[in-house]
Write a structure and sequence with these properties.
Helix content is about 60%, strand content about 5%. The chain is mainly alpha-helical and about 575 residues long. Strand 8, helix 25 (about 555-565) and strand 9 form a beta-alpha-beta unit.
């Protein structure tokens, strides 16, 4: 496993000043921060190489069929899935801070890509370059905190809707239907409307692949780890079953391709197959900045960017959010820490470099990261092995992909996205905080209309709920002969009108008017609007012959209030001291 960096005294060559040594240390640590490979490569062991090779090979065998399938989701030729699957392994080895994360095409990014590029490879590659540029700029400007404004209910709402959209979108391939619209509601309508056109061969093969994938996944999840009492034969059998279940996607796709090839060889093409694909490695070239349509019309860079619209915000954000969430989850599970801004930089540079090999936008994959972790990967170097497996597939296996049945790829996708439909989270929202269902349902429902509307709608609803809590802070009122009002959060300009209303209705408009102790020990900041409102309140309390005393003011807040030179400002260290003062005044 990756070990934490430990400071060790280096060799002392000659005598140097303390300042020079500190400068050297800082510069090396800065280099380590930007190139995390320097923290683990000097300590790399031979035993780690064995584990990284096994993990990388296993993930590679999982990546190839998934990449082919996700290209179908993105509406692109299948080879573009493989073009997108190898660059992340090489870049992340140098720049990543998680030993487990694998970058590549995912179901969600493929769905988002399909929404904005409409199956156009040129636009997909340009979108990759722009997304990478935006993500890299965010990393350099340390803007990773912006992701904090996308709440968990919004993320869950989007992933559940995306899983339903992607999963149902593959039903047409299981049924062997063609020319089905991409819009979700039209897709549902025409899929059911054209059920009589179903191809029996695709249905049988698709259902059989689904059954095998589900059974192999079940075997893996129920397989108990070997014990020390087990014989070597039992351990070998356990490893064999676990290995078969882990690379189930590749085995099922290979078996289905062999079946399709056999039927075609006997002159009975009963399956819908992938068909001809481009052979060989993608050329390394600068991504196109304009496009020429088949009828000769030239579309400029600016026009393409304008067509992308909100996708240039949605896709980079969702890509980073998905990858960092995965990295944090596995870092917590395996007891190490990640650097969110460095992860952002790694994803951004991966997308920039990926655009030079005709990739579409990529991010971290939860399923492949889980396989990587479970296989015992020790460092990010496992990604190099995965990348090599994908490159070998592109170089030598592309002709064999001709016979891959679309129904088998559809089965792989359906099994990959099914766990994303998490109905249990709805129950948790209901039990913990029912209001969280509002952004969740907003995102979930709007995502079926347009993906970007779902995310934006959920973020807006979450933001409004957050702003409401800021504008309406909870004020606990107790009556001790004198009203004691405890603010349970800070004071800022949106909350001043509400505080004013509470004080007027419960103290100043009472008959007779009542004195108030304002317990401010939770308040850690105030702004000009708050100070101005407090000035007016102090004047109103004085006019009515009652007192307003502040208690528990933090030093920074007290300093601001004293600098504002508020008239008749009185403050005490505790509520009890304020009550004593007001009780003495009353007597």
């Amino acid at each position: 496993m990756m070990e934490p960096l430990v400071d060790r005294p280096g060799p002392q060559i000659g005598r140097s000043s303390l300042g020079e040594r500190m400068a050297s240390c800082c510069s090396y640590r800065t280099l380590q921060a930007w190139l995390p490979i320097l923290t683990w490569l000097p300590k790399y062991r031979l035993s780690w190489l064995q584990m990284d090779l096994i993990a990388g090979l296993t993930v590679g065998l999982t990546t190839v069929p998934q990449a082919l399938a996700y290209a179908e989701v993105a509406g692109l030729p299948v080879q573009y899935g493989l073009y997108s699957a190898f660059m992340g392994g090489f870049i992340y080895t140098f720049l990543g801070t998680s030993k487990d994360v694998t970058l590549g095409p995912t179901a969600i990014m493929s769905l988002l890509c399909a929404s904005y590029v409409g199956g156009d490879p040129v636009r997909a590659v340009l979108l990759t370059l722009l997304c990478g540029t935006i993500q890299t700029a965010m990393a350099l400007l340390r803007l990773g905190f912006l992701l904090d404004f996308i709440s968990f209910p919004v993320i869950k709402g989007f992933t559940c809707a995306a899983a339903v959209t992607i999963g149902f979108g593959q039903v047409k391939n299981v049924l062997g239907l063609k020319d089905i619209p991409h819009e979700f509601f039209l897709q549902v309508y025409y899929t059911f409307y054209r059920i009589p056109e179903t191809r029996i061969g695709d249905v049988v093969l698709g259902l059989l692949c689904l059954y095998l994938l589900v059974m192999l996944q079940w075997m893996k999840s129920t397989l108990e780890p070997p014990s020390e009492q087990d014989t070597p034969l039992t351990r070998a059998a356990h490893s064999l079953v676990w290995g078969i279940a882990t690379v189930r996607n590749a085995l099922v796709v290979v078996a289905a391709s062999f079946v399709a090839f056999s039927w075609n060889a006997f002159g009975s093409p009963v399956f819908t197959i992938t068909g001809k694909t481009s052979q060989g490695l993608p050329p390394f070239r600068a991504p196109p900045l304009s496009e020429t349509t088949p009828n000769g019309t030239s579309i400029s860079f600016g026009e393409i960017v304008e067509d992308f619209g909100g996708g240039l915000a949605v896709i980079p954000f969702m890509g980073v959010l998905e990858s960092i969430a995965i990295a944090k989850a596995f870092a917590s599970q395996n007891d190490y820490r990640i650097d969110a801004n460095q992860e952002l930089f790694a994803i951004g540079l991966t997308n920039i470099m990926g655009s030079f090999v005709s990739a579409y936008p990529v991010t971290g994959s939860f399923g492949r990261t889980a396989v990587n972790s479970q296989t015992g990967v020790c460092t990010p170097a496992g990604g190099i092995v995965t990348g090599v497996v994908v490159l070998l597939s592109l170089a030598f296996l592309m002709p064999a992909f001709y016979y891959i049945p679309k129904a088998s790829l559809a089965a792989v996708i359906i099994c990959a996205v099914a766990p994303m439909v998490d109905y249990r989270v709805v129950i948790q929202f209901w039990r913990i905080r029912k209001l969280d269902l509002v952004p969740f349902l907003t995102t979930f429902l709007l995502s079926f209309w347009e993906v970007q509307y779902g995310i934006v709608g959920g973020v807006v609803v979450s933001g409004l709920m957050l702003l409401y809590n800021v504008a309406r802070p909870s004020i606990k009122v107790c009556d001790h002969g004198v009203l004691v009002m405890e603010l349970d959060s800070g004071l800022s300009f949106p909350s001043t009108e509400y505080l004013n209303t509470v004080l007027y209705t419960q103290a100043l408009q009472a008959s007779p008017p009542r004195s108030v102790v304002l317990d401010c020990h939770h308040v850690n900041t105030v702004d000009y609007t708050v100070v101005n409102e407090l000035r007016d309140l102090l004047r109103q309390f004085k006019l009515r012959g009652v007192g307003l005393i502040f208690s528990g003011l933090q030093y920074s807040v007290l300093e601001v209030l004293l600098a504002a030179d508020l008239p008749d400002l009185r403050h005490t260290a505790s509520v009890e001291a304020a009550l004593t003062i007001l009780s003495g005044n009353a007597q």
